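Take a record:
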Amino acid sequence: MKTIGTFVLALVAVVTSAVEKPRLDVYPISADRAVVALINESPAKIEVSVKSGEGRIVYYKQSMQNTADYRKIYDFSALENGLYEISFKVNSTLVKRNIEIVNGSLKVGASELRFDPFFLVDGNMLKVSYLNFDQNNLKLIFMKDRNIVYEAALGKEFSTTKGFDISKLESGSYDVILADGSNDYRFTLEK
């Protein structure tokens, strides 16, 4: 129990100091256009996407160079009425905002941050920690050669920290997948 407690404290320290904390601003400048600005603490490659409410990607771009300051005017006039999500992926951090288009006007929602899970192999333990902002049902899957060798339901808690004994796994390469219902996060485990 003391080890898990220490791990949680270490994770909190890592999340508050080592992860990117980008700021995403969306400023409507007309009924169908907006300035989208991302400001990050340090230069990094970014991925930007706009998804429809059904999850269909309507725009995607990945930067070729590192940047700490991204600004662009987006024209949303070709999009139908509905809810959209604009998101930026910066290293292991995702920042997003909902945009609603209603009869040619833009409504911008609050900014939300999401962080990739943290995986750590410590001896014969795989430690996994994840901040489950959306409180989705989490599942952890170990796969070897495209076959599931172990699967565990992790629940819906906001702060999920689990340790898994990997001492009995055969030697080889495993894909460890943390699935939250919306995203699959992969970690390669070499045993």
User: Anything to note?
Assistant: The longest strand covers residues 33-44. The CA atoms of residues 94 and 156 lie 20 Å apart. The chain has two domains: 20-115, 116-190. The first helix runs from residue 2 to 17.
